Amino acid sequence: MIGDYYNESSVTPFSNVSAQFLIQIIATPTCLSKPIISSNVSTNTIVTVENSFQFTVTIQSDCPGTSIIDFFRTPPVNMYKSNITFDAINNVSIVTETWIPTSDQIGSQVYCAVATDRYSTYLII
Prior knowledge:
Layout: E1 2-4, E2 15-17, E3 36-39, E4 53-60, E5 68-74, E6 79-81, E7 85-87, E8 92-99, E9 112-117, E10 122-124
Antiparallel strand pairs: 1-2, 3-4, 4-8, 5-9, 6-8, 7-8, 9-10
């Protein structure tokens, strides 16, 4: 149970909420290489307010015959990703991000991502 209290010395909570979570047990992976995530955006890319900005995220698995099954990220507000597509010629998975920043987003923005392959290995950028 998680409760919210008036202050640190209170013993009676305003309310209680059950905390639930899921744990997934997986077998030991046969390939320990993590996917490699890269993009076509340089570190100091300038994006202008109310103009569409698009970039590509490329994910490569070093495990033979392995595909990327999930791409989770925490983008700025109003950034939308495409579905994961697979480029068989270059053996990489691709996600396209599209963003139209608003005036209240002027300044630095954080973008973090995690890729998961079928062995459940991952890399965070």
